[in-house]
Amino acid sequence: MKLLKDILYKVDLDRILGNTNVAIPHMCFDSRQVQKDSLFIAVKGSLSDGHNFIEQSIKQGALAIICEKLPSDINDKLVYIKVKDSSTALGVVASNFYDNPSEKLKLVGITGTNGKTTVATLLHNLFQALGYKAGLLSTVVYKIGYKSIEATHTTPDAIRLNTLLNEMVLEGCKYCFMEVSSHAIDQGRIAGLDFDIAAFTNISRDHLDYHKTFDDYILAKKIFFDGLKKEAIALVNKDDRHGATMLHHTKATKKSFGLRTIADYKCRVIENQFSGLHLNLNGQDIYTKLIGSFNASNITAAFGVAVELGEDDLQVLTVLSALNPVEGRFQQFKSANGVIAIVDYAHTPDALQNVLKTIADIRMGSQKVICIVGCGGDRDKGKRPLMAKAACQWSDQVIFTSDNPRSENANAIIAEMKEDLTASSIKKVLCLEDRAEAIKLGITLAKPGDILLVAGKGHEKYQEIKGERFPFDDLEMLKTRFKEQES
Questions:
Q1: Predicted local distance difference test score (pLDDT) of residue 214
Q2: pLDDT-derived band of residue 370, with 50, 70 and 90 as boundaries?
Q3: Distances (CA, A) of 6 to 58, 86, 95
Q4: What pLDDT does 486 receive?
Q5: Which long-range contacts (CB under 8 A, 24 or more apart) does 167-172 make?
Q6: Across-strand partners of 147?
Q7: Is the pLDDT of residue 205 over 70?
Q8: Which of 145, 338, 468, 471 is deepest in the core (most CB within 10 A)?
Q9: What is the average pLDDT value for the chain, to the nearest integer?
Q10: What are the C-alpha distances in Å from 49 to residues 158, 185, 243?
Q11: Does 64 score more than 70 pLDDT?
Q12: How far apart are CA 449 and CA 443, in angstroms?
């Protein structure tokens, strides 16, 4: 329980009606969660506006309201706080409500189109192995030390986020490594957080259903770096031309990593095989179980963060070499008949191309590449033909199937994927809406030694169709179908 006047600290206030010297036991931005004496924050969302639920929240017992527009009927028994931006205010008051837990941790945020999950997870596993208790907030899972909690969003809402950070503090965590999505930045979910390091992996087309333009998407990422304190570190991928953009206007100390350019943390790929990578990182050799130049970049980012946090170079490299790949990220196994099966979360054109180029670099001349891929419904439609082109360019055989069609028709999505393909590319393509049957077909087509990539869903354990989530796990489906073939 906190006094309202205390949790309004650092909030950009326009007007206050009522007495802020009142105790607040609970806060929320969903009117359905309002309890007696709650603070209700009216946030304008993409689907609904919390201002429309102020009256409902009052009926349910709200004591105080934060809003951008005051209601026409003012109840003199309540407290009203008018602000310029409710989303930002939500982040600040949530942080204050939980005694600013991010200030009690070394908080590292990783943003970018691809690689966020891998870098954050590598760092969490690395620091746990180094003997520290650490937290993780990722697309795959939230962790407090070794305790796992199901992830609901890449970056949780501000209240959930500060609740988790507070639990980390109470459990004795010294570090937290978290993915920072563009949605979270734009919606103010990270407002009020005290970041010690921000890392930028890369940026390519994604989320244009939300941001509308690529420039808006880039700007959302940049806002994260613009808001860093001067004592923080801004670590960016120098191989990506937008890395320099992230550093414009930041007050933080600027650091870089890269494979192709001179950087503070420099990596060179010596050997890339299905067994892993042999790298030279800042003059030191390292062998790792991860595969592909994109993972060499991810490892370099993790190495840079760890060293900036004061860890010993050689000790970090030793532990990194022993870490396993992240679930659903170039996760592979070999079937009994010698087919190499790979599951990867690649759901953007750039990510899919990176995975397929890595396979192309490693495969032997006689090995065929079969790619099974779909595109999510209710998301950026412009990337569908780009995903299809990448699949056809780097594969011998392609099977278009459903991903998470959500409210859309899966066959209509597949038709949009095919729209801009050339005649020669179309010849490579088979279409099968049922993802399980598509995987079965891919296994049937694969000969011993061939490489079968199932892309797009990675760690996800469901398919979302018409508002329902049905159990579906690409990796388990592959293993099951291979066993059926062998029996």
A1: 84
A2: very high
A3: 22, 17, 11
A4: 78
A5: 168/101, 168/105, 168/135, 168/144, 169/101, 169/104, 169/105, 171/133, 171/144, 171/145, 171/147, 172/133, 172/145
A6: 144
A7: no
A8: 145
A9: 95
A10: 17, 19, 35
A11: yes
A12: 12
Q: How far apart are CA 333 and CA 207, in angstroms?
A: 31
Per-residue pLDDT reduced to its tens digit, 308-346: 999 999 999 999 999 999 999 999 999 999 999 999 999
pLDDT digits (tens, 9 = 90+) for 90-136: 999 999 999 999 999 999 999 999 999 999 999 999 999 999 999 99
Query: For the chain, what is the HEC assignment?
Result: CEEHHHHCCCCCEEEEECCCCCEECCEECCHHHCCCCCEEECCECCCCEHHHHHHHHHHCCCCEEEECCCCCCCCCCCEEEEECCHHHHHHHHHHHHCCCHHHHCEEEEEECCCCHHHHHHHHHHHHHHCCCCEEEECCCEEEECCEEEECCCCCCCHHHHHHHHHHHHHCCCCEEEEECCHHHHHCCCCCCCCCCEEEECCCCCCCHHHHCCHHHHHHHHHHHHHCCCCCCEEEEECCCCHHHHHHCCCCCEEEEEECCCCCCEEEEEEEEECCEEEEEECCEEEEECCCCHHHHHHHHHHHHHHHHCCCCHHHHHHHHHHCCCCCCCCEEEECCCCCEEEEECCCCHHHHHHHHHHHHHHCCCCCCEEEEECCCCCCCCCHHHHHHHHHHHHCCEEEECCCCCECCCHHHHHHHHHCCCCHHHHCCEEECCCHHHHHHHHHHHCCCCCEEEEECCCCCCEEEECCEEEECCHHHHHHHHHHHHHC
Express as a percent the part of the chain with pLDDT over 70. Answer: 98
The residue with tokens 């204050």 is: 96
Q: Which amino acid belongs to residue 78? A: L
Write the single-letter amino acid at 59.
K
Q: Is the pLDDT of residue 13 over 60?
A: yes
